Amino acid sequence: MGDSTTSATTSSKAPLAVASIGSEQLHQALNAQSGAEKRALSYSLTIHQLFCQTLQSKLPGDRILADYFRAHKKHGSKDRRVIRETLFGLFRWHGWLKLIPLKDDSQQAITQQWFAQLAMTAALEAHPWLDIVSAWRGFAELDEPAINAHTDSGSDTDALKFKQAILEAAFPAQVFPLTALAPDWFWAHFDQDLEIQERLVSSLSSRPPIWGRLQGISLAKAKAKLAQQEIEASGSDYFKDAINLGHKSINLNAVALYNEGKLEIQDLGSQVIGNICAPKADETWWDACSGAGGKSLQLRSLMLQQDSEASGSVVASDIRRKPLEELTKRAKRAGFSQISTQPWQSDALPVAAGYFDGVLVDAPCSCTGTWRRNPDMRWLDDASAITDKASLQLDILSRACEAVRPGGVLVYATCSISPVENQEVVEAFLAKRPDFSLQTLTHPFTNEVTQMLTVLPYQADSDGMFVAKMIRQGE
């Protein structure tokens, strides 16, 4: 177990302590009498079980939760919402919540700390189930909050510092640093000034919108069609085919645009990569680490935006067969006949060497840029999530580059925001391959001119990404 998770579980003893107390014992100890108190106690035990299971298994919290709900179909929609939003809220604010002090060393105090974490999560997230929250506060022997998160709307006060004040008012003897919301090992690999750190933490502590990308339909027509299904949407200031679907959960299978292949879910930060690739209508591209093919679809869509009869094509490769099967389904739904798949079978190139106008290497990485979507991951990983990837990333880039024709384009991308996986990998590659040279890029969100482009989540309410574009010398 890595340092970050170890410190989280040892400094926050509540999960281990509550697990040692049975439900009946808790009922007796807490004297839960009202219906709300009994429901609050039941929720707390379920959430505690899921929280501990996630930390101990190091499996993604959404997978743990999905398995739980499949096995416990008794829960209604409200139950599921309380459990889901509290669980991920606990992880979103875990760096602060684990600092909540114990009143004494007794078993009861440790149990009270767990209820305090639940209550403060609800306060920080402004959860609406007030009867449940009130019961948790009572179990924790907490007074009503001196500052209410509901009053934050419309305030000029920085949202994160306002939430920090909520905790400090509840526990005035304890300090809750903003940087505690990400593990210490992460800051060792994100060497930026305090202002950037605080802006990053602020974005990591907020929920990202659902970003989509339109294919073969205008924004105006897409918005009108979505409005018919009572889905509010807006465009982007940066890409004409990007669409913001808000923060509410959406059943995609019930969305007509999605079923017609006119809408794909793709984060705005991820869309930066395809726009940096900028494939021409008649070019041949290889997506060397395609996964389920979101960027392969984007490359083909960008070709068709230039010419509805675009002759260009995309070959998608991955070591896993299931994602490639999913890509085939998505391409068929979109009507994209010029996308094919070719799995990696060994270290040898699965495609022809020196053939492609462009090669995209969206390399496996620590995914630190997607932490706001997966708040549990920042506490499940340790520094090795960053430090162990660079050699693999360089190896994939070094092999995939052989598929680029002379004069062609090589694009390296990750959803990491750590230089170890980004700038340092590109620099190591260029030191070995002087026949490739970096291109100058313009950051789409900041207009910064750079050769190593990092998208930070707060710049356009997106995931974090990195991209570099290189040209192979010769014609």
From TrEMBL:
Keywords: Methyltransferase, RNA-binding, S-adenosyl-L-methionine, Transferase. One of its GO terms (molecular function) is RNA binding. GO terms for biological process: rRNA base methylation. Gene3D superfamilies: Vaccinia Virus protein VP39. The active site is at residue 415. Residues 186-473 form the SAM-dependent MTase RsmB/NOP-type domain. S-adenosyl-L-methionine binds at residues 318, 362. One of its GO terms (cellular component) is cytosol. Belongs to the class I-like SAM-binding methyltransferase superfamily. RsmB/NOP family. This is Fmu (Sun) domain protein. It comes from Shewanella loihica (strain ATCC BAA-1088 / PV-4).
